[in-house]
Amino acid sequence: MAEPKYHRILLKLSGEALTGTHGDPIAPEVLDFYAQEIQTVLEHGAQVAVVLGGGNIWRGNRGTARRMDTAQSHYMGMLATIINALALQDALENRGVFTRAMTAIKMDEVAEPYIHRRAIRHLEKGRVIILAGGTGRPFFTTDSAAALRAAEIKAEVILMAKNGVDGVYTADPKRDPSATRFDFITYMDALQRGLEVMDRTALTFCMDNKLPIIVFDAMRQGNIGRIINGEKVGTLVSDIAAA
Fold first, then answer.
1. Are 87 and 45 in contact (CB under 8 A)?
2. What's the CA angle centered on 11, arms 47 and 22, to 5 degrees?
3. Cα–Cα distance between 85 and 101 in angstroms, integer?
């Protein structure tokens, strides 16, 4: 098997990515699809960390819109990401993949606390780590958590999984049929254009720490493996096109 281009990745999945076609917020068939994709990446020789959102269960800004205390609502969203992490862990382990769920909020009965050196050690041992609970603090999105954790574990790239969109476009392709896809765009250009790569705080953090991002269609089978092997998939967001 060819040497992978990326040896350590952080995969960012939205909570909505786990939703089934019949409205099930955590669909077993979707979990198994992602588990199979991740297992394939391991077989390519890459190390995998996953950060999950929680929007299929609860979004922090949802409570704010209902006049709930903002911090309280964000903590609820963090708990939603932990539910998703446990579901993905179960799907992976059903395939024989060794995993560790690690949380930014201490929850010893169900997962390990996130300690970055321990996380790196798990990766070195070939385990998939699922990093839940966001940053552990309100007012930060799971995009920000993905960027922060990627820097801490020294991931070579962040894979931003999208559903039904195969990269970064000049406009929303679902609303504007004339929108065109970028193969490559710089961080600054994405920020200045207001393109939906990830939230601005996270994207600025990636720019400052020179963390390349690949935005791709998560539901096309084999896409993650193609990226690992160096194929051009989706949109690369970086300072240099050859990152």
1. no
2. 130
3. 7
- Residue 143 in any domain: the answer is yes
User: Are the CB atoms for 202 and 146 separated by under 8 Å?
Assistant: yes
Q: At what angle do helices 142-153 and 116-124 cross, to 10 degrees?
A: 70
pLDDT at residue 243 is higher than 60: no
Three-state SS string over 127-156 comes to CEEEEECCCCCCCCCHHHHHHHHHHHHCCC
Residue 118 in domain: yes
Contact 31, 88 (CB under 8 A): yes
**C-alpha–C-alpha distance, residues 152 and 102, integer Å:** 14
Single-letter residue type at 136: G
The DSSP symbol for 186 reads E
Extract the tokens encoding 208: 């400052």
**Alpha-carbon span 104 to 34, nearest angstrom:** 23
Q: What contacts 24+ positions apart, CB below 8 Å, involve 118-126?
A: 119/49, 119/149, 119/152, 119/153, 120/153, 120/154, 123/8, 123/47, 123/48, 123/49, 123/153, 124/47, 125/98, 126/42, 126/47, 126/98
- On whether residue 164 sits in a domain, the answer given is yes
Residue closest to 208 by CA, chosen among 191, 228, 230 = 191
Is residue 188 assigned to a domain?
A: yes
Q: What is the pTM of this model?
A: 0.94
Distance, CA of 59 to CA of 70 (rounded, Å): 11
pLDDT digits (tens, 9 = 90+) for 173-195: 888 889 999 999 999 999 999 99
Q: What is the pLDDT of residue 175?
A: 85
